[in-house]
Specification:
By secondary structure, this protein is α+β, with helices and mostly antiparallel strands. The chain is built from 14 helices and ten strands.
């Protein structure tokens, strides 16, 4: 039997590997050992019982942990050390830990024994998430390390994002207080990650601030692919379980949908970043869904919102999916804004997105303004809408 040191944290009442006195089996002298010592803490009786009830599904006497068959993504659980739990859901727990000397997040998902339909759905979401994450490499997509399939418990190991979720960060800010340069950076990270996903034929289908994670450098990575799918596998949205406040109207109506549902959700997320508010916070999720579908309601745009952002947001959350831009265009627009803002921090005060050709000439316009010190408002008034 493998040396399942990670499991001993539950049987000893601490979150460090070791024997009953709380000390490890060996004296850690490496960086890995130092990290493990930091994870030590006492757990409550209730947490201990829940942990044991989950861990019994993962190991049994004389058995290996890897479940049914070996996969390329199968985890070597002897290299996994579980630390503090930092998030939980109805059927999941997320822990911080170490896997092969790397800080990781460990998501454990359990199938309810009393609900076979839900158990099947959870297993399908696990299989889908692992299949989609495996092999994806991009600076703005969460890094997948390994997984373990041992029904009724599944385990997914990804990189640990120390900054937590974008929703958590925004909750800590005052309304309308996020600087425009940071809004732009966060939006670009998300758009680039989504552009990559769509280029791989993948729809996320649950893009929201809770599923966007931050590192210590405020870099955003797209995460949580449990209800994602390949573009070739799209059907109707019947029985779909996304999040109403961010969900495109065609999905709420359970109609056929395309990758443009992610663009709609991106528009809501960009509004969130600008306002640091929860969309439709004065409604229940069901009320929000009804308002979006039946009344074409959208979150209220703040009066002080720069036209550059408000125009893009309104295009993204258009009721007609065909009028929503692709992420390739969104990235190009935001990159144009970023370059222009770096040349002139007052860019958002005068820019009006009214000309198709304007984005390509923005840096030149800013240059001209810097050289002549004359306003360029007359240069950007104008013609057709982009």
């Amino acid at each position: 039997m493998k040396n399942l040191r990670w499991l001993k944290q539950f049987s000893t009442g601490t979150t460090e590997t070791g024997n009953g006195n709380g000390k490890g089996d060996e004296t850690p002298s490496s960086v890995d050992g130092k990290r493990r010592r930091k994870l030590k803490r006492k757990i409550s009786l209730g947490e201990y019982k829940r942990a044991v009830s989950w861990s019994k599904y993962l190991v049994s006497s004389g058995a290996e942990i890897k479940g049914e068959g070996e996969e390329k993504w199968s985890a070597d659980m002897s290299q996994l050390f579980i630390g503090n739990k930092f998030a939980s859901g109805r059927h999941s727990r997320i822990y911080r830990g170490i896997y092969k000397q790397t800080d990781v997040a460990i998501k454990l998902v359990s199938q309810p024994e009393e609900d076979l339909d839900l158990a099947t759905k959870i297993e399908h979401e696990f299989a889908s998430e692992v299949a989609l994450l495996f092999g994806l490499t991009h600076p703005n997509i969460i890094t997948f390390f390994a997984a373990c399939k041992k029904p009724p418990v599944f385990c997914i190991i990804t990189e640990y994002m120390a900054g937590g979720s974008l929703r958590k960060y925004l909750h800590q800010q005052e309304p309308h207080s996020v600087p425009h340069d940071l809004v732009l950076k966060l939006a670009l990270d998300i758009a680039r990650g989504m552009q990559f996903l769509h280029s791989q034929g993948i729809l996320h289908r649950d893009l929201k601030s809770e599923n966007l994670l931050l590192d210590n450098e405020m870099c955003v990575k797209v995460a949580d692919f449990g209800i994602s799918c390949l573009e070739t596998q799209i059907g109707s949205a019947k029985g779909f379980t996304g999040t109403y406040r961010w969900m495109a109207p065609e999905m709420i109506r359970e109609k056929h949908h395309t990758k443009k549902v992610d663009v709609y959700s991106f528009g809501i997320v960009l509004w969130e970043i600008l306002t640091a508010l929860v969309p439709f916070d004065d409604m229940t999720p069901e009320q929000a869904a009804f308002a979006v579908c039946q009344k074409n309601a959208r979150p209220q745009m703040p009066t002080e919102c720069p036209a550059a952002f408000s125009r893009l947001i309104k295009r993204c959350w258009s009721n007609n999916p065909d009028k929503r831009p692709h992420f390739e265009e969104i990235v190009a627009i935001l990159e144009g804004y970023w370059e222009s803002y770096n040349r002139d921090p007052e860019f958002f005060l005068y820019f009006k997105p009214n000309d198709r050709k304007l984005l390509r000439c923005l840096p030149k316009c800013i240059n001209a303004r810097s050289n002549s010190r004359k306003p360029v408002l007359s240069m950007i008034k104008g013609s057709i809408s982009i």
